[in-house]
Amino acid sequence: MMIIFFSVKLGWFPATGYVSPFEHFLKGMHFFVLPCISQALLASAIIARMTRSTMLEVLRQDYMTTARGKGLPKVWVVAKHALKNAFAPTLTVIGFSWENILGGAVITETISAYRGSAAHLHAIGQRDYPIVQAVSCLPPAGSCSST
């Protein structure tokens, strides 16, 4: 929908294609705007909603009332106590949504004609074993072999 609206109707961004930011920085960033926004939109909405609900829950706790009653500044109470305690459930949601982010990246790269993780799936389908090995084996693990 974003491609139809922002590329076809308004003509603000290119619909597909790729220019390396190392070749021409501004033009390269121009090609990245729609895919990045489409990737970040859903994940940021879920994370923001979870952060808000856990912050409201934490701010209603007795120790928060005590901290405010001691005369601590509101910014200090929220930043030091509330955010730290509300971050654990939010981090859990970020971890669970990571697979959706990666799956969405494959779809976004396919639609935008980028050669990223979608190209690796194509390599799996074509049985291009050197590319699959290069992507699957992480160098720090040291468990990759050339056989």
Q: What composes the largest sheet?
A: none
* Fraction in helix: over 70%
DSSP summary, beta strand count:
0
Average pLDDT confidence is: 76
Q: Sum up the overall morphology in one term.
A: elongated
Low-confidence stretches: none
Structural class determined from secondary elements: mainly alpha
Strand content: under 5%
Note the total helix count: 6
Q: What's the gyration radius in Å?
A: 22 Å
| Quaternary structure of the protein | single chain
Number of domains: 1
- For the record, give the distance between the C-alpha atoms at the N and C termini, rounded to a whole number: 45 Å
H-E order:
HHHHHH
Can you characterise this structure?
With about 150 residues, this protein is mainly α. The chain has one domain (about 1-135). The chain is about 75% helix and about 0% strand. The protein has helices spanning about 1-10, 25-60, 60-70, 75-110, 115-125, 130-135. Helix 2 (about 25-60) crosses helix 4 (about 75-110) and helix 4 crosses helix 5 (about 115-125). The chain is elongated, with a radius of gyration of 22 Å.
